[in-house]
Amino acid sequence: MNWKKFASTIGGMWLAYLVYKVITLILLYTFDGLQSKPYYEFIYFIIVVSITLVIFNWTKRFFKQEIIFSPNIVALKKQWSILIVPLFLYGIDTFAILPSATEYSFYIVMASIASALGAAIFEEMRDRGFGGIGLALSIENSQWKPMFIAILTSFIFSITHYFNLLMPNAPTLVATNQQVVSTFFLGMTSIVLYMRTGSIFYSILIHFLNNFTFWTPTSDLSQDDGWASMLIFYALIPGLYSLWCLRPKKSEMNLKYLPDKQSD
Fold first, then answer.
1. Which of 49, 97, 155, 187 has the most CB within a 10 Å radius?
2. For 36-60, b where at least 16 C-beta lie within 10 A, e where not — what string?
């Protein structure tokens, strides 16, 4: 284990998130009602993309690696089935509401895209890209390495959502707990796509589909859903999917596009 690189990875993930959160909280508390204005989504997009560019440079500077954005079509052709479950789970709601796009103004549609895409790019770059590469370089190769990376990066990704309780229009604790659970398994699903293709493109796509909804003044607030349906569709199914893909028997496939641990 390269503990220095491990600490740099975890620290970098948290630093990037805290910078983002401090900036957005300052804005939301300085400008009353900003959270319920659609133009905030564009401000948010600029903030997260700016931090994402820093994360991209951190990855090259500290790890001598580059996060790949271009879709790896060749890798996906050989294992196209890995995209079926994520597209069904996280895309079905988006596909269902797309016909209603004509009911919204072009401005609202673009604000909705900015919000969903900004979060997807920032969080996938931070947790799957920077986090996945950093941990891959910190840990010796073994059949359990992909599982360890997936669980740790997904755990960090999920618990950051508790900071949403600090927002002016904060979600309820129940809704936040549900979001933390569902985002953990979204993270597990996303890291599978990243490991199997070596590209962040597919995890960003799935994350975007999961986030996308047409903007309303209350769309930033997580809504309480029934625990039973949430646990089945956003915990049990993606959990079984990710555990199956990350099982030790498939370690060679899951390690194929990850960088090897560098010497201390």
1. 187
2. bebebbebbbebbeebbeebbebbe
